[in-house]
Design a protein that fits this description.
The N terminus is likely disordered. The protein starts with a helix and ends with a strand. It is globular and about 45 Å long. By secondary structure, the protein is of the alpha/beta class. The protein has five helices and seven strands; from the N terminus they run H-E-H-E-E-H-E-H-E-H-E-E. Helix 1 packs parallel to helix 3 and helix 2 packs across helix 3. The longest helix has 20 residues. It has one domain. It has a five-stranded mixed sheet with strand order 1-4-5-6-7, with helices on both faces.
Length: about 190
């Protein structure tokens, strides 16, 4: 179940930045380029439906301690998220990414995002000369999709933040954290 399109959209915005902006380094965390349990072929028809049918919103109870945090999702929000993901994937088919160093971090336990869509994007960027690194948080951490929010139920920022910080600095995450480096072929490299 989607929690909030705004939370999920962060990885897509980072992917867009990597494709279109000449920055030194981009760290992309679990981009929702497509929805899990839905083939990449079916993403476009689902996107079109969510953008054309009447909008449906599902709101969750407000957090009394953090009133600025609105939880929920809408079909239009999901459609726009898929639209941005499709635009980045389409651009990657035709052009090399603009970012000099792209690091993609995925969560093996994430049941929200479509891993095939992420793998395809990484493969296209690698094929067009992008400097790519892909890393995977282990399933043993049992992390939710949103690994960044310190208030996310089931999150573990003590394990995740050092990984993200090392990627932002351009280094490889410490081996004791269990993060795997994944080659563009999808082969996992244990350290």
């Amino acid at each position: 179940m989607l929690r909030a399109a705004s939370v999920i959209l962060g990885g897509n915005m980072a992917a867009w930045t990597a494709q279109y902006r000449p920055v030194a380094r981009v760290v992309i965390v679990s981009p929702a380029l497509g929805l899990s349990h839905l083939s990449t072929v079916a993403q476009t028809p689902v996107m079109n439906l969510t953008l054309r049918l009447p909008n449906y919103s599902q709101k969750e109870a407000a957090d009394s301690l953090r009133r600025e945090r609105a939880l929920g999702w809408s079909t239009r929000g999901v459609g726009q998220m898929l639209r941005l993901g499709a635009a980045v994937r389409h651009a990657a088919d035709e052009h090399a990414p603009s970012a000099r160093d792209i690091r993609v971090l995925v969560n093996e336990n994430d049941e929200t995002v479509n891993r095939d869509a992420i793998d395809e994007l990484v493969a296209h960027w690698s094929a067009t000369g992008g400097h790519m690194s892909r890393f995977e948080l282990p399933d043993s951490l049992r992390l939710p999709h949103d690994v960044i929010d310190p208030d996310e139920y089931g999150g573990n920022t003590k394990a995740v933040y050092p990984v993200i910080l090392s990627l932002l600095r351009g280094s490889t995450p410490p081996a004791d954290l269990g993060v795997r480096t994944v080659r563009p072929s999808g082969e996992s490299v244990r350290r």
